[in-house]
Design brief:
Blueprint: E1 3-9, H1 13-28, E2 35-42, H2 46-56, E3 60-62, H3 66-70, E4 76-79, H4 86-95, E5 99-102, H5 110-123, E6 127-129, H6 137-147, E7 154-162, H7 179-182, H8 186-202, E8 205-213, E9 218-220, E10 240-242, E11 248-255, E12 260-266, E13 275-282, E14 285-290, E15 296-301, E16 312-315, H9 336-352, H10 361-380, E17 384-385
Bound molecules: alpha-L-sorbopyranose.
Alpha-L-sorbopyranose binds at residues 163, 189-190, 229, 267.
Length: 389
């Protein structure tokens, strides 16, 4: 059995998701392509690093991420830090010959993403961006329908990612509201998940026309980098500081294929929690997915008899992508963890089979070019081209 040693940087929410995936992957995908070994975890906050090592079962911890890069035993560098740190860590890891799993969005600008993409291309390491939702079996089934031509030529689509954790003005100013740390707000944090899924399903984006809004212009300052995702409420007398990223973004998309669509993302939509949806209309049928009902894919075909035409629901299970390795009965339930376990499996497999992981840093860079075009368009109030790579 092959073993791959993991060094994970950042000990917050995503570290938990990735650590569970490293532990769980071989239990689902047996025989595993390789067993990930949780060697070292890093966090600049020593308490977080120590606690992370204990909680997530890492052999050791450090407050200096460079210890992971310089450790010759480490095979994989897993980047779960705020977005502004991704570039420096990823480039150092690539130069040290480590494979990289990097949380999304890849970078805070397209220019940074380009440098990261070039670093991994010239070093030849495997590098994946953690856009996990495309790995939901129902999304993979949608891809299969599209590739088989079941819904014909894609005409148009709409995608959403709606949450409400930042709708409360008492929700503090974490790194997710500061441009220099995150790059953009709802767009980069959650909109890019939908961009990844739709780019994967309908193809390259050529042009966008966008609007963004910042509804809550100031938020209470929080100490430290840890991120409560709206759960910690500040006192009324806590000093505030400006928010300089979007709370909401909405844009039209013109695809290279001719298909046309809309995408919206907000973290201020009361009542919506992890409302990731897409609906794709083709010349011969339609597909609808809603992550809040992620075991289901709804499909409708023009060839169905007229008196039975309409959306029907398929519950994913063993016959579907990844299904044989997951649970033995359809609709037993795919969760966030399973999407991360599948992501881990595909990433480890790309290393052991020497194949290109997907979404790669190339895809991560392509998504940053789209985000840059969205922000340019929101400022110019005009259609903007997505720059070529
Ligand atoms: C916050 O909006 C967040 O944690 C995102 O950053 C994740 O990528 C998303 O999947 C869950 O919500």
């Amino acid at each position: 059995m092959k073993y791959l040693n993991v060094g994970l940087i950042g000990a917050g929410f995503m570290a938990k998701a990735h650590s569970i995936a490293y532990a769980g992957m071989p239990m689902f995908f047996w025989p595993a392509p390789a067993i990930p070994v949780k060697k070292m975890i890093a966090d600049i906050n020593e308490d977080a690093a120590r606690e992370g090592a204990a909680k997530f079962s890492f052999e050791s911890y450090t407050t200096n991420w460079k210890d992971i890069i310089e450790n010759p035993d480490i095979d994989i560098v897993d980047i779960c830090t705020p977005n502004n740190n991704h570039k420096e860590i990823a480039i150092a890891a690539a130069k040290a010959g480590k494979h990289i799993l990097c949380e999304k969005p890849l970078a805070i600008t397209a220019e940074e993403a380009r440098e990261m993409y070039e670093a991994v291309r010239s070093s030849g390491v495997k590098a994946m961006v953690a856009y996990n939702y495309r790995r939901t079996p129902a999304v993979q089934l949608a891809k299969k329908y599209i590739e088989e031509g079941a819904i014909g030529d894609i005409l148009d689509f709409r995608g959403t990612y709606l949450q409400d954790w930042s709708a409360d003005p008492a929700s503090p100013l974490s790194w997710r509201f500061q441009k220099k740390l995150c790059g953009s707000g709802a767009l980069g944090d959650i909109g890019t998940h939908v961009v990844d899924m739709l780019r994967y399903l309908v193809g390259d984006f050529l042009q966008v026309n966008a609007r963004t809004a910042t509804y809550i212009q100031k938020r209470p300052i929080q100490s430290g980098l840890s991120d409560s995702l709206g759960n910690a409420k500040a006192d009324l007398d806590t000093p505030t500081a400006p928010v300089d990223v979007d709370d909401q973004c909405c844009f039209m998309v013109q695809c290279a294929s001719g298909a046309f669509g809309t995408i919206e993302a907000t973290r201020n939509a009361w009542g919506r929690n992890n409302y990731i949806t897409f609906e794709i209309h083709g010349s011969k049928g339609s597909i609808y997915f809603n992550y809040e009902r992620r075991d289901e894919l709804q499909v409708c075909f023009s060839g169905d008899p007229g008196d039975r035409r309409g959306y029907r629901t398929i519950y994913t299970g063993p016959p579907h992508p990844y299904g044989e390795n997951l649970w033995p009965i359809p609709a037993l339930g795919i969760g966030y963890t399973e999407t991360k376990i599948i992501e881990c499996y595909d990433f480890i497999r790309s290393i052991t089979e020497d194949t290109q992981p997907s979404p790669s840093f190339y895809d991560g860079y392509a998504i940053e070019l789209i985000s840059d075009a969205v922000l340019r368009s929101a400022a110019s109030r005009k259609w903007e081209d997505v720059q070529k790579m």
